[in-house]
Design brief:
The complex is a heterotrimer of chains A (524), B (391) and C (366).
Chain A: H1 8-15, H2 36-46, E1 53-60, E2 64-71, H3 77-90, H4 99-106, E3 112-115, H5 118-127, E4 131-134, E5 140-143, H6 173-183, E6 189-196, E7 202-209, H7 215-227, H8 236-243, E8 255-257, H9 260-268, E9 272-276, E10 282-285, H10 303-332, H11 340-350, H12 357-377, H13 380-400, H14 406-420, H15 425-445, H16 447-463, E11 465-466, E12 469-470
Chain B: H1 2-16, E1 28-38, E2 44-51, H2 53-58, E3 70-77, H3 80-88, E4 94-96, E5 102-106, H4 107-112, H5 115-123, E6 132-136, H6 141-144, H7 154-163, H8 172-180, E7 185-193, E8 207-216, E9 219-225, H9 226-236, E10 244-247, E11 254-271, E12 274-290, H10 299-328, H11 335-342, H12 344-350, H13 354-357, E13 362-373
Parallel strand pairs in B: 1-4, 1-5, 5-6, 6-7, 12-13
Antiparallel strand pairs in B: 1-2, 2-3, 7-8, 8-9, 10-11, 11-12
Chain C: H1 9-36, H2 43-64, H3 70-78, H4 80-112, H5 119-136, H6 138-163, H7 181-194, H8 200-203, H9 213-239, H10 249-256, E1 258-259, E2 263-264, H11 267-296, H12 306-319, H13 324-356, H14 358-365
Antiparallel strand pairs in C: 1-2
Classes of the chains: A alpha+beta (524), B alpha/beta (391), C mainly alpha (366).
GO cellular component, one term (chain A): membrane
Region (Disordered) (chain A): 1-27
Protein name (chain A): Spore germination protein
């Protein structure tokens, strides 16, 4: 330990250069000068060896030297030619006293911004807007012509539904915000923009409903986002890991969604939605454990069926987590717990298996996980082949060869299917992972081990919070009012209040007493 | 990082310690039934029926009738626990009692007394509380060796039979309660081996329940046949599925009924030192066969049938009482508890000479039988309409 | 304050319920039956009386010294030296009680399910888990208890449904054949469990709705009484007075289940209840011990002493009790007297003293 009280192995780290930070920008001290040449030189230095940046010199009218700087591919050349170069070159420069008036009268571009510093110019150029530099002006002009190739709006692939809107978010932030705005037209929908990532300068939007959301939640979200100092944000997963409450947990503490309707419903419940440029996955906070079991479709189909399906999900969550461990515990520790005839069949099928129960289970589960992972990563055509081979390998052939018992194959298959019942992929993976330690516990301590593992998981869930909201909120701490969306999906006319944890100010989401019935239509 | 290391360390500790209670199914000898016989020198002989998993896995579910699914091993010892220790040396797998649902005492063993061996069955954590207890006519071990045609092994046969409540059904817990109860008497179903259809198929037969063994103070004191057993079961309120066939007075042929529901009440009373027990029974039944020429839709005819029904039950009860109460003097009906409940003070005084009191308890039967439904046809099914008696 | 978490009065009641019931459910019916015969179902009613008294005494103390645990106000009432001595004695007792609970928990598992597993493994895994929860604070324990509570009540109801056909309701007669005597004698044992409500002295200061503390405390005692009554009735209807000879009658009842030839041998259900209940019970005792000890030693945080205390408890669970017979002897012969004496009478004495010498503390605390 050295004098500073730091441990020796940590001192090294402090010698490293700190990561590039959000602000101030390294070019902040550079201002635009009156000499275009100078400005141009600075920009060209900054963008040296950037083959995609185009500097186009031209004259406004006949005399004023000007430059337009843009990145090819981030805006259309035709637009620049048609709306910028053509009118400016044909204009009579003497008619206009300064740049501002000229822009107002000549440039057929709706979004125009005055820029005062080099840093501003860089930001605009980086965003795809051509920047106009002008002889004799201390300012530059950004022209909102950014336009690039983007993916079309498609059906969200990670959250598919039978009923409900088919469009999903895309990689383009503006498209995503427009999808939300189209659904919530009220100006109470606020979208605060910020940039995160030293190099990537990724745009992040914090969206919330003013008047519904708890303002401290918004402040907390913004504060946590502002704390992030990183070189780049490529996906909302980066942000998720930087702002969650407990990083040492397999469970997601923010909900990610690809669906604008899910994002909007979260907004209306008083949650905060964080949209990140470059990814179709938006983040929703705060979230409870049970909210992760709500699929968008639950709210579109009949509530009775949704309730039943929700319970099916809870049941299969348990199966997905515990079935292999219970099987191992029972066949190696508590053989008296199965009915005699079942035990006899199991004993018969296990007779030739050379592995102990735990090893057999691990073998099968790991093989299954590998097959599944391989299926996700492989191109679609090969993926099908893998699943066929997998089915044969871990199914029929393994049983015939006497390597595994038939009940084990059934257990693994049911477990695998059960895992797909969880509508959120992120929770599903957490459960998949936790299955293995519990299996080990089951193999050493039997049912006691399973129970200990389960208790440990529940205690862990009890310690978790998502933006201050207890993770198991609704069940523990007990809030019977929240059961309307946990134990059952109550019909819309009965879903009177917003979730309690955030919607304190504007609790009621609808007028009372709206239960439909035949007699209503006869009322005058 | 430190945390992860710590967790890994603890996990590995768990494994280093080994898996103490772990037993693979492949290493278990699953016992499906056990027989306890008396042997010389006050020893006992324990025989167990062990399930052979390989026999089932070879046939993939469908067992060929020829293959033997179980094997029987025996060992002698001073007690069950002692015999098991010896038995374990003869079986390469760990003896597992968790699925043993049938325990059979040999007749000699039962006469010698079963109290000592009961202790093992209730103390050891493996045998099930709901395992069924039997006494076998002759040696008990022979029952286990049978190869029944319908079920997979012989102990399954008697278990299934008991489940149908053809004879008495006594579980370990119930037997324990009887032995420790106030009446000091117990009854167990008595089984015997059905004679094989021919000599060649010596073992291909099944056991069946032939009556009841009666115990007093933990020792078998006698047996009653199937007919009297029915009476005992009537008194104990255990009759569930048994067809009563009654002969009507002054009418040719018999009528059979299926009791659907019966309700038994014991009303004890002590008057002038005379202990008296009234058995009130109410039973309902459906006609299943009408071998007479009576019209079953006629309420008056039904009255006749009801009377015969009633008489038949009374006869059975009396038969049972005669044999059990007066000959064997064993209170297997647990009158003692009923007296205790109604007359706790008197019971306390008489507790110690209950054995003398019981045979002298006056039993009054009060049976009400009702026929509720005539079945699917009203008139006798097999005779011309003219011959049907309407009055 | 050592503990920053807050719980509601309802959560406190939910927390106390398994804390008392968990171990009582399994062992008490048979001990009660030994004295009360078929009046064993009456005993919890008498026994609960002392529970009500304890709750009221502790609550009254709490009202006089809000936001303080018994360790802190005993110093005010008894003076520094005597108060510390009292606190030390109490903490020692709590370590011992926790160790005893741990031992009973392990004894059941090892005796009925894991016959070959060394008891130290069963004890240490559980204590490790509890330490994890205790470090999370009272909030986490309370939330875990709330999450588990349905799994605690439902199996009991399930047992009733599945066993109903086997019940012999007339086993309840004769009611009070020998007067109230036997059932009162039977109540001697369960009342020890009810005195454990003194734990409230460690929980009341952390309530968000302090005025409801008494109401929910009393309700919790009532729920415990009802549960014991029902479980006693189950085993009585099923086994009659034979209950007295069984070590764990409720488990025997679960093993007796046979429904539709498939729902058989539900002892795993009992085991699950047992582990969950024991977890909460041990956590609460452990938490009270850790918190109290930290306050006794004027520490700024109780978390650092959680693991050392766990080690101490593990040691005590071996040293203090050589065998199961010894444990039940303690249950029968020592705890029924020790419990009310220390856990009810001493707080009552404190309360009386606080009235006798009010001026002194008033001056100090204000």
């Amino acid at each position: 330990m050295n004098r500073n009280g730091r441990k020796w192995w940590r001192t090294n780290k402090h010698k490293l250069e700190p990561a590039r930070q959000n602000s101030p920008s390294p070019y902040a001290h550079l201002t635009l000068s009156k000499e275009t040449k100078e400005n141009l030189q600075t920009l060209q230095d900054i963008y040296s060896k950037c083959s995609d940046v185009i500097f186009r010199p031209f004259y406004i009218g006949k005399t004023i030297k000007a430059h337009v700087v843009f990145i090819s591919g981030l805006c259309t050349v035709q637009d620049v030619d048609q709306y910028v170069l053509t009118p400016l070159m044909q204009a009579n420069e003497n008619e206009f006293p300064d740049m501002e008036q000229m822009a107002e009268q000549v440039l057929a571009v709706s979004r125009i911004k005055n820029l005062a510093t080099i840093a501003d110019c860089i930001e605009e150029i980086g965003s795809g807007n051509p920047v106009l530099l002008w002889e004799g002006e201390e300012r530059a002009l950004s022209l909102g012509l950014a336009k690039w190739e983007k993916r079309n709006i498609e059906e969200p692939s990670a959250e598919v539904g039978i009923r409900g809107p088919r469009e999903g978010f895309t990689e383009t932030l503006d498209v995503n915000t427009s999808q939300i705005r189209r659904r919530i037209k009220d100006p109470a929908l606020k979208m605060e923009r910020m940039k995160i990532g030293g190099y990537t300068q990724t745009e992040v939007i914090v969206a919330y409903m003013e008047g519904i959301v708890d303002q401290t939640l918004v402040e907390e979200a913004k504060a946590r986002l502002n704390r992030i100092q990183i070189d780049g944000i490529l996906e909302s997963g980066y942000i998720e890991e930087m702002i969650e409450d407990n990083p040492a947990s397999p469970f997601p503490q923010l909900k990610d969604t690809e669906r604008p309707d899910t994002a909007c419903s979260a907004l209306l419940e008083g949650r905060v939605v964080i949209l990140v440029d470059g990814t179709p996955f938006a983040l929703i906070a705060p979230v409870t454990f049970f909210a992760l079991f709500q699929a968008a479709e639950d709210y579109y189909q009949r509530y009775i069926i949704s309730t039943a399906i929700r319970w099916l999900r809870y049941l299969f969550l348990g199966i997905s987590l515990l079935l292999p461990s219970l099987y191992v515990a029972i066949i190696t520790f508590h053989q008296e717990m199965v009915p005699t005839s079942l035990l006899i069949s199991m004993a018969a099928s296990r007779e030739a298996v050379p592995f102990p129960g735990l090893v057999e289970a691990l073998l099968m589960e790991i093989t299954f996980e590998a097959l599944r992972e391989a299926g996700v990563r492989l191109p679609k055509q090969i993926g099908a082949a893998v699943s066929i081979v997998g089915a044969l390998v871990i199914g029929q052939a393994a049983v015939d060869a006497g390597l595994v018992s038939a009940p084990m194959v059934i257990v693994v298959a049911i477990t695998g299917i059960a895992n797909f019942m969880v509508p959120r992929y992120s929770v599903g993976t957490a459960v998949r992972l936790l299955r293995f330690p519990i299996m080990f516990l089951a193999g050493t301590l039997g049912l006691l081990g399973v129970m200990l593992g389960l208790i440990a998981i529940v205690v862990h869930l009890c310690t978790l919070r998502s933006f201050g909201v207890p993770y198991l909120s609704g069940i523990s701490p007990l809030k019977p009012k929240e059961w309307k969306d946990i134990l059952y999906r109550s019909p819309w006319w009965a879903m009177k209040t917003r979730p309690h944890f955030t919607g304190e100010f504007n609790q009621y989401r609808q007028a009372p007493d709206q239960k439909p019935g035949p007699e209503r239509s006869e009322d005058p | 990082m430190k945390r992860i290391l710590l967790t890994l360390l603890m996990m590995s500790l768990l494994f280093l310690g080994g898996c103490w209670d772990r037993t693979e199914i492949n290493d278990l000898a699953i016992i499906t039934g056990a027989a306890i016989d008396a042997a010389d020198d006050n020893q006992i002989e324990l025989s167990v029926q062990v399930f052979i998993p390989r026999a089932l896995s070879a046939g993939r579910g469908s067992t060929s009738s020829g293959g033997n699914l179980t094997l029987v091993k025996s060992a002698k010892g001073a007690s069950i626990a002692d015999a098991i220790a010896l038995l374990q040396t003869k079986i390469p797998r760990k003896i597992f009692w968790g699925h043993c649902e049938v325990f059979i005492f040999g007749e000699d063993m039962a006469k010698r007394g079963i109290a000592e061996e009961m202790d093992f069955l209730v103390r050891h954590p493996q045998p099930r509380e709901r395992a069924y207890m039997f006494v076998s006519k002759g040696k008990a071990a022979k029952t286990l060796e049978l190869r029944p045609e319908l079920e997979r092994y012989s102990s399954e046969v008697i278990r299934e039979m008991s489940d149908m409540h053809i004879g008495m059904l006594v579980t370990i817990i119930q037997l324990k309660e009887m032995l420790r109860g106030k009446s000091n008497a117990a009854a167990l179903p008595l089984i015997d081996v059905m004679p094989p259809p021919n000599e060649a198929k010596g073992l291909e037969t099944a056991p069946y329940i032939m009556g009841t063994a009666v115990f007093r103070k933990g020792k078998m004191v006698g047996e009653i046949n199937e007919k009297a057993t029915r009476g005992v079961m009537w008194i104990r309120g255990e009759v569930e599925r048994y067809t009563v066939t009654a002969k009507l007075k002054n009418v040719q042929g018999t009528v059979s009924l299926n009791p659907i529901h019966s309700d038994i009440k014991f009303i004890p009373s002590i008057r002038n030192g005379q202990w008296q027990m009234t058995i009130k029974a109410k039973t309902e039944g459906d006609v299943v066969q009408n071998g007479t020429n009576l019209d079953m839709s006629n309420p008056e005819m039904i009255k006749l049938v009801e009377k015969a029904f009633q008489q038949d039950i009374e006869d059975r009860i009396e038969l049972a009482l005669k044999q059990v109460q007066h000959e064997m003097k064993a209170d297997i009906f647990d009158f003692a508890t009923d007296f205790y409940r109604e007359y706790p003070q008197e019971w306390k005084a008489a507790k110690n000479n209950w054995d003398e009191i019981f045979p002298n308890v006056k039993v009054i039967t009060d049976i009400h039988a009702y026929v509720r439904r005539p079945g699917l046809v009203t008139l006798p099914g097999g005779i011309p309409e003219e011959e049907v008696r309407e009055k | 304050m050592l503990e920053k978490g807050k719980i509601s009065a309802f959560q406190m009641a939910v927390l106390m319920y398994p804390t008392i019931v968990a171990t009582a459910l399994l062992t008490v019916p048979s001990i009660t039956a030994a004295y009360a015969d078929n009046d064993l179902w009456l005993s919890p009613i008498w026994a609960s009386l002392i529970g009500f008294v304890t709750v009221l005494v502790v609550d009254a103390l709490h009202r006089r010294y809000p936001q303080k645990t018994i360790i802190q106000y005993s110093e005010h009432i008894l003076g520094k030296l005597l108060g510390k001595a009292f606190g030390a004695f109490l903490m020692l007792l709590y370590v011992l009680l926790t160790a005893l609970v741990v031992r009973i928990y392990a004894e059941f598992l090892v005796g009925s399910f894991l016959t070959q597993t060394p008891i130290v493994v069963v004890i240490s895994t559980m204590l490790l888990l509890c330490a994890f929860a205790v470090r999370g604070g009272v909030e986490v324990i309370a939330r875990a208890a709330t999450a588990f509570s349905p799994f605690f009540v439902l199996p009991l109801l399930l047992l009733i449904v599945l066993l109903f056909t086997d019940f012999q309701l007339d086993r309840i007669f004769p009611i009070m054949a020998d007067g109230v005597g036997p059932s009162l004698k039977g109540a001697l044992i369960p009342q020890g469990w009810f005195t454990e409500y003194m734990l409230l002295a460690f929980l009341l200061p952390f309530l968000t709705d302090r005025e409801k503390g008494r109401k929910w405390g009393v309700l919790s005692v009532f729920a415990v009484m009802l549960t014991l009554l029902i479980s006693n009735l189950i085993v009585l209807f099923l086994f009659g007075t034979d209950v007295a000879t069984m070590l764990y009658p409720l488990m025997a009842a679960a093993r007796y289940v046979s429904f539709a030839d498939f729902f058989e041998n539900l002892e795993s259900l009992v085991m699950a209840i047992w582990i969950m209940g024991a977890f909460i019970k041990i956590s609460v005792f452990y938490y009270a011990t850790a918190l109290g000890s930290a306050q006794l030693l004027n520490l700024s945080d109780y978390r650092p002493i959680v693991l050392p205390l766990g080690f101490l408890i593990t040691l005590f669970s071996f040293w203090s009790i050589p065998s199961l017979m010894e444990t039940s002897k303690f249950d029968v012969a020592v705890f029924p007297f020790l419990g009310p004496l220390v856990l009810t009478l001493l707080p009552l004495l404190l309360l009386l003293l606080s009235f006798v010498r009010p001026a002194r503390q008033e001056g100090k605390s204000s």
